[in-house]
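User: Could you go from structure to sequence for me? I need the amino acid at each position, not a summary. Structure tokens:
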């Protein structure tokens, strides 16, 4: 089969490396892919938001199956547009992707269907939002309604900070139209867990749980990033919590989407917080998480393409989804300065020496050389029998990869190791 993957980061590289193992795929394209992905798939210079370009490419090249990985094309209706020309897809329709595309939608959904989440109010009027903030205790959480590259969430420690956040979103429009509506939410405390799940709209199969590391600096200091590393499974997520989540969060969400005529097919991502009062939803994503995917997929023993086709054809109940009883650690190697300013264009070497999965996120190929081309450059994912083995191996193998201005966190998995004890 001819298959294309829409997207061009580390997550897409991890998906492509899994798809490459499938005997049913004889040609793989990535739109746009990147310099590292180019070693595993044919990269085509069409951006992930260029829905018309993507559809034309699929039509002209006889694409039979598409995996749409990033949030933007999903929210823009890429799957609907490809389905309309007869291309089967892994990923939700536009109607279902709204679960990530609008925080107001997802919060209202959870309220309507009694799915545990932080208490909240939504506002379209800035003065009303500010008046409300003066009545609630700090810290308080302000979220822009729409997609904002993961940056639209502000944890305000004081009421003044909260007011500033609302003004920056609603008046100064720092996130554009994404901030024309805001959610003001109760501040929750507890360990965070990411659970990615396959669902065909009726059946839901969770993958192994994971833990992201969002801050740029060691010990969770510094700015929020797209993710500096991940481990899987997450030791805080016990079997008892997993079955509670299945009952109170996962299946109710699948059923709620169906009841709203927004049947969700694809990978549904649950960002959970394990509070004193039980697990609560912090966010939904309509797609595989990044960098969680780079930690979870190395543990998948089943054929990813077989599972994806079971999801898109509504036959997930008949499909076995198996994960290894092992642990993984994903270490992100970034450009010094990220998520602020950083330099690119440095040669990456040694990535072929690492005895681990190396997933390229931001790099370009020039004259056969792989050069850094982004803030997050690549991820090294190692698997071990214990979490400690996986963490040690990720760092050891990560040392074999070189580029100028290489930056990484030194404590990926440290919190999980403490919890596991
Ligand atoms: P999100 O983009 O919704 O995942 O939010 C980014 C991060 O902000 C989350 O991973 C949490 O660490 C934090 N966060 C979001 N909502 C809350 C909340 N209600 N209480 C505490 N922290 C939160
Ligand atoms: N790791 C969080 C996300 O993919 O949004």
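Assistant: Here is the amino acid at each position, in order:
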């Amino acid at each position: 089969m001819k298959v294309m993957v829409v997207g061009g980061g580390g997550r897409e590289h991890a998906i492509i490396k899994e798809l490459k193992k499938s005997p049913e795929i004889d040609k793989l394209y990535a739109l746009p892919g990147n310099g590292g992905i180019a070693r595993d798939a044919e990269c085509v210079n069409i951006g992930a938001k260029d829905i018309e370009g993507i559809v034309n490419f699929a039509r002209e090249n006889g694409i039979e199956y598409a995996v749409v990985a990033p949030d933007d094309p999903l929210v823009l209706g890429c799957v609907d547009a490809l389905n309309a020309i007869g291309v089967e897809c892994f990923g939700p329709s536009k109607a279902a992707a709204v679960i990530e595309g609008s925080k107001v939608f997802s919060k209202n959904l959870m309220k309507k269907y009694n799915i545990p989440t932080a208490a909240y109010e939504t506002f379209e009027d800035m003065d009303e939002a500010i008046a409300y903030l003066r009545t609630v205790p700090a810290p308080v959480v302000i979220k822009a309604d729409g997609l904002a590259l993961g940056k639209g969430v502000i944890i305000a420690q004081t009421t003044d900070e909260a007011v500033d956040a609302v003004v920056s979103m609603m008046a100064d429009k720092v996130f554009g139209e994404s901030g024309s509506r805001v959610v003001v939410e109760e501040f929750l405390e507890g360990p965070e867990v990411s659970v990615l799940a396959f669902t065909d709209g009726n059946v839901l199969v969770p993958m192994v749980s994971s833990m992201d590391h969002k801050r740029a600096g060691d010990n969770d200091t510094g700015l929020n990033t797209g993710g500096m590393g991940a481990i899987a499974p997450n030791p805080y997520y016990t079997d008892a919590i997993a079955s509670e989540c299945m009952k109170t969060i996962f299946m109710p969400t699948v059923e709620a989407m169906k009841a709203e005529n927004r049947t969700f097919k694809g990978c549904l991502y649950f960002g959970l917080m394990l509070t004193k009062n039980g697990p609560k939803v912090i966010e939904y994503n309509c797609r595989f998480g990044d960098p969680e995917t780079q930690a979870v997929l190395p543990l998948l023993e089943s054929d990813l393409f077989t599972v994806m086709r079971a999801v898109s054809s509504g036959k997930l109940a008949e499909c076995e989804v198996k994960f290894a009883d092992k642990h993984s650690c994903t270490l992100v190697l970034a450009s010094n300065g990220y998520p602020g300013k950083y330099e690119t264009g440095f040669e990456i070497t040694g990535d072929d020496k690492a005895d681990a999965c190396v997933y390229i996120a931001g790099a370009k190929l020039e004259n056969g050389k792989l050069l850094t081309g982004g803030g997050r450059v690549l991820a090294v994912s190692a698997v071990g029998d214990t979490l400690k083995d996986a963490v040690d191996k990720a760092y050891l193998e990560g040392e074999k990869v070189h580029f100028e201005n290489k930056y990484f966190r030194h404590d990926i998995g440290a919190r999980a190791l403490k919890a596991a004890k």
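One structural detail worth keeping in mind: Residues 139 and 157 are 4 Å apart (CA to CA).
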